Structure formats: structure tokens, C-alpha cells
Amino acid sequence: MLNQIDGLGDICGSDSEGRKAASDFQNARDKFTTYAGALADGYVGVATRLCEMAANVAVADWNSIAALPKVDQSVPIAMPTI
Questions:
Q1: Which of 39, 65, 80, 81 is 20 to 30 A distant from 11 in Cα terms?
Q2: Is 80 inside any structural domain?
Q3: Residue 18: CB partners within 8 Å, gap ≥ 6?
């Protein structure tokens, strides 16, 4: 997107108002680039942590299963009758 804006050329002019507008635009552009980069980094961090959470839950599930009491399979299971 910024490359397309750059492709427009000098849209501000060379008088004092144009130079002020160009300076303000450059400041806004720099802030936008910084904020967009921080936002992108944040999304990468969220994705990484979601993957870590999923892995931790999978391990916790297996640990829970291993901690369940053992079932005595020699005892017959009583089935309810209606």
C-alpha cells in the first residue's frame, strides 16, 4: 500500500504549506508503519501462544487419563434393566 502511495509522486508541492503537509504525512506514515508492525508482531505472538496452549492441554489430558483409577476388569458390569 505504501509503495502505491509513493508511486503518486510529489503531491504536496514545494511551497511552505506543501512542505508542512509532506512533513506531517511522513510523520503519520512512520507512525503507521510502526503501529502496523507492532500489530503484526502481536498477532504472531497470539498464534504462537495458542499453539503452546493447545500442546499444554494435550499433555494435561494425557496426564489426567493416566491418573484415572484402574478398573478391575474381573468384576462383571451390571447393566440396568427397565
A1: 39
A2: no
A3: 12
Burial class (CB in 10 A: 0-12, 13-18, 19+), 12: middle
pLDDT score of 66 more than 90 = no
How many domains are there within the chain? 1
Regarding pTM above 0.70, the answer is no
- Note down the domain range covering 26: 16-53
Banded model confidence at residue 31, pLDDT cuts 50, 70, 90? very high
**What value, to the nearest 5°, has the Cα angle with vertex 75 and ends 71 and 77?**
90
Distance CA 39, CA 46 (A): 11
Q: Grid coordinates representing 61? A: 489430558
